[in-house]
Amino acid sequence: MKLPVYLYGHPVLRKLSEPVGKDYPDLSQLIDDMYACMYESDGIGLAAPQIGRNIKLIVIDASPLGEDFPECAGRRMTLVNPELEVLDGPKEVRAEGCLSLPGLSENVPRTEHIRLRWLDGDFQPHEEEISGFLARLVQHEYDHLIGKLYIDHISPIRKQLIKGKLNNIISGRTRCDYPVKYAPKKK
Ligand code: NI
């Protein structure tokens, strides 16, 4: 099934997600569909709230970034119920985008090192310290599971400057070359 990407302004992006159980209906099909959705929209990560489900599930394929960021090479990860710990260290500022915020890209400060615990698609446990751009990507996707978006990390002035673009997304006036679902119209 082709999944649309839910866009900024949709309430599903602002809710806390629930853990996924082994008995979640058609989970492996859902994971396959999420990868397909991510690849079709040229994304490198996709969290379940972005396809309208408030569950703790993320797919990542950072391999297209492998040339610029070696830590991303060959990294294809299905994260079920991830737990993220931000480790001490400096913050680095880099540009981020999001499939739920088409046409936008903003500089976001994030810590460079994290510890991540997660289950893969077969519910096997993993734990790893992750650094660099991959750590940024994981933090971005993890934010989706707690109702946050990368624009929550930018300055109020910057947010004011992009307000028009944000309003265009909310009101459905933005163009997108992948299937999307806009926020429900306010009455
Ligand atoms: Ni995103």
Number of spatially distinct domains:
1
Portion in strands: 25-35%
Q: What's the overall geometry?
A: globular
Considering DSSP H and I runs of 4 or more, what fraction of the residues is helical? 10-25%
Explain this structure:
The protein has 187 residues and is α+β, with helices and mostly antiparallel strands. The protein has a single domain (5-172), classed as Peptide deformylase (Peptide Deformylase, Alpha-Beta Complex), CATH 3.90.45. Helices cover 22% and strands 26% of the residues. The protein is built from four helices and nine strands. The protein has helices at residues 27-40, 132-145, 156-161, 163-170; strands at 5-6, 45-47, 57-61, 76-86, 91-96, 106-111, 113-119, 125-131, 180-181. The strands form three sheets. It has a five-stranded antiparallel β-sheet. A hairpin with a 5-residue loop joins strand 7 and strand 8 (125-131). The radius of gyration is 16 Å and the shape is globular. The two termini are 31 Å apart. The model has no long low-confidence stretch (mean pLDDT 96). Bound molecules: nickel (II) ion. Nickel (II) ion is lined by residues 98, 100, 140, 144. Nickel (II) ion (NI) binds next to helix 2.
